Amino acid sequence: MTYIAKPKMHHPALQPNAVGFTRRDYEGRISTLCAGCGHDSISAAIIQACWEMNIEPHRVAKLSGIGCSSKTPDYFLGNSHGFNTVHGRMPSVLTGANLANRELLYLGVSGDGDSASIGLGQFAHAMRRGVNMVYVLENNGVYGLTKGQFSATADKGSASKRGVANSDSPVDTASLALLMGATFVGRSFSGDKGQLVPLIKAAIGHCGAAFIDVVSPCVAFNNHSGSTKSYDYVRAHNEAVNRLDVIEGRSEITTDYAAGTTVDLQQHDGTWLRLHKVDEAYDATNKIAAMNYIQEHQARGEVVTGLLYVDTNPEELHANLKTVATPFNQLGEAQLCPGAGALAKLNASLR
Amino acid sequence: MRATDIKSPDYFHKVVDCQWACPAHTPVPEYIRLISAGRFADAYMVNWDSNVFPGILGRTCDRPCEPACRRSRVEDHNAEKPEPVAICRLKRVAADHKGDVSARMPHAPTTRNGKRIACIGAGPASLTVARDLVPLGYEMVIFDGDPKAGGFMRTQVPRFRLPEAVIDEETGYILDLGVEFRGGERIDSLRELLAGGYDAIFVGSGAPRGRDLQVPGRQEAAANIHIGIDWLSSVSFGHIETIGKRVIVLGGGNTAMDCCRSSKRLGGDEVKVIVRSGFEEMKASPWEKEDAMHEGIPFLNYYVPLSFEHENGKLIGMRFDKVKAVYDERGRRSLVSSGEAPEFVPCDDVLIAIGQENSFPWIERGLGLEFDEWGLPVLDEKTLQSTIPNVFFGGDSAFGPKNIIWAVAHGHEAAISIDRFLSGVALSERPPAHVNLISQKMGIHEWSYDNDISRDLRHIVPWAAAEQALKSIRVEVELGFDAKAAFAEAQRCLNCDVQTVFAPPLCIECDACVDICPMDCITFTENGEEADLRTRLTAPAPRLDQDIYVADGLKTGRIMAKDEDVCLHCGLCAERCPTGAWDMQKFLLEMPQARDGCATRAPVRSAA
Lengths: 351, 608
Fold this sequence. Notes:
The structure holds two protein chains of two kinds.
Chain A (H helix, E strand, L loop, with lengths): L37 H15 L7 E5 L3 H4 L9 E4 L5 H11 L4 E7 H5 L3 H10 L3 E7 L2 E2 L5 E2 L22 H8 L3 E6 L3 H13 L3 E7 L15 H7 E3 L1 E6 L14 E5 L5 E6 L9 H13 L3 E8 L6 H5 L11 H4 L3 H11 L1
Parallel strand pairs in A: 1-2, 1-3, 3-4, 4-8, 7-8, 9-13
Antiparallel strand pairs in A: 5-6, 7-13, 10-12, 11-12
Helix pairs in contact in A: 1-7, 3-5, 5-6
Chain B lengths: L8 H7 L1 H5 L6 H9 L3 H12 L2 H7 L4 H4 L2 H4 L12 H11 L18 E5 L3 H10 L5 E6 L7 H4 L8 H12 L4 E4 L6 H5 L5 E4 L5 E2 L14 E3 H9 L9 E5 L3 H12 L4 E5 L11 H9 L4 E2 L2 E9 L2 E14 L5 E5 L5 E4 L2 E4 L3 E2 L33 E3 L2 H4 L4 H20 L10 E6 L1 E3 L2 E2 L18 H6 L11 H8 L7 E5 L9 H5 L5 E4 L4 H4 L14 E4 L7 E5 L8 H5 L5 E9 L3 H4 L11
Parallel strand pairs in B: 1-2, 1-4, 2-3, 4-16, 6-14, 7-8, 7-14, 8-9
Antiparallel strand pairs in B: 5-15, 10-11, 11-12, 11-13, 17-24, 18-19, 20-24, 21-23, 22-23
């Protein structure tokens, strides 16, 4: 952490975006995490993505659980709504908030402990239901706040800082999200903003449950030679399947890549995702193939990154529940509580 | 780009824009920090060592440091007119608040080395030479036609800008070292002086001739037409105490500003500054123009003098042709008559302040001292040696009119040359600058400098009440910062001498520095040519005069590129660095002086 606040002075060339904010306006308070924490880079990537997407800060709700990762919403989007929930319960609170006001952008920020241990059930059900959200899992493989015990995402056989090998199998949250029905699944690395920022932007544009697993090295407890979540290990074993450009609006799509190496996918909100294939055989729209691919490479100790799967016609919670288009929090009492007569009519229809 | 060689003393020196711009390379941030700490005497001595006349310069310097100041490029909430740190006036603070520093002054050694050096003119250049050489054992004899030392600092700068007591004090520190000062002895012959048995001669006689304006009526109305610098000198010595009610000052330089403001105090009610060129092209420093305008003096631009008008042998006014600036396709300007009828401006006196020239009537031709086509002595630019090996030049007499701080810089160089010359060492080899780079880390979040930058706008120096200031030429207009305002102004300094030093082998490329940097200075990227690299940094780096700090040897094969241009030196990159790859290290440059370079001491270079 740092004692002085980040100076307000900024680069003379700093530009406002279409809604009048500079990138600095999307910052939060100064981070109290350890110097060099991967989580701070993820915060910076979220700031960059929101600025580029012209997001109005007051239309964003940040929700998190408990842990180093769950502290980070304090360090970005300082003018957005925030909710720091009970440990592992962020998905429930997010789902409830989303039901009450479907018009906000929901940003769920969690860690490997919060999502893969205490909150594993919550995580799975939020994906199942197709809650319209961006769920960012800041995955460092250890419990940093309690001095570096293995978390549930630590790879079997990887060593702790003191050299003890992990004997438990890891929870692979990307595979789990796919299995549970998430309609957008990506994985990235905090040290590669060139990959991470477009992934976050694409997830923001996705109308459904979007999940990004971000490997984020813990410099204090999990950045040593026996770790599989260190800067060096991830850089050496990073198997990117594609690179992503997010093209907003309906501007004409032109390509200067060789045919067959680029795929353009239009999301429901009109944004185009341009995938530059790194692995020629990889098809990000084929869920079963994606699951196989991830598992095969995982078995070889590789970290598969990129946009792993996207459903361009996702189903989401509100559509499934057939809720009205107007957010609940804007409806009046008469509409929300139509009275005993309406209840009697409903009951009668079910007899 | 090739990796930056941070061992080169110039690299980090350039980052300290103010120090780099200063001819004497005064360590500006170092003394500003001392002022913040209330260590005024220490701040004064840092200055005195480097620029010799802190009290005088703190009031009169042309301050090349201030336009260079990084603050004026990064002050965000003042985009209309970002202001540099008031470096010059902080120097005055050190002088005003220092107390008694006489005990800290050097002394002449008890036994002299038997070598005698004559200095011609007692201005800043000669006094600097004397200050540097007396402690080494030389006997210095300074001649000046005026009874008191100081040269143009005393004769030309009006008392309302520079009180006599300050000149007496600072020339006194040097004369008291044990210099033989021969005031009132004008040197009329270099031949005689050369025969006088001096081992070396330093010429610091300035550029003492004011340029005249020969248009019709000049002779007839001569009684009320004055050469600006001569008139200022007469005012300074009390020979002139009044001027007519209506005064025209011709010229747009700092001398013109001194002339018009002086006239205002000696009875000139209607004082006008009249200039051939446009306002922007006037050579006076912006702040001097502002000060004159503040005192209600109008500037008439694009007026070319046609004649002095007179009746019965008395000046009644001047006629001017009104012109406009026309630029040709190559951007060269010419002044073309507007075609309007000439304008008559009535006046009682005219002061001509249109430039100064060198003048060496006392140097006989045929002695072997060569002059160039402009009448300036032929000199070795670095050593300041003339074509007579034991005659050296400095200040305005060397390369034409400049300013006090340049004279001081010349004085230091000439002193080195004279010392080497008289020690029988080659002059072309100069003693190296001493460079020190020291980590400022005191603890996990503790630095030995205050890295929390003040967002204050530039503080205004208080002035004496206008009616009181204009009543007498001896009332100093500027009152100087008090200790509280000085502290607040000093806190605006960005500490550019505390350098961001990067150690690639320690870096794990976690991006923490990139994310925290408030100015988006830092980038990790693939290497490339400079022109290409400058466009693809985190923020574009268009100022080519500001370096990109490039470091290679990173694990991923990328480079670290830092744009020095807008760095706040806040140290957050170093605070957020988990491995200590970034460190904040204070760059301290000790410019060579005569004491470093003589034959008895081998040049030493400390770690850089």
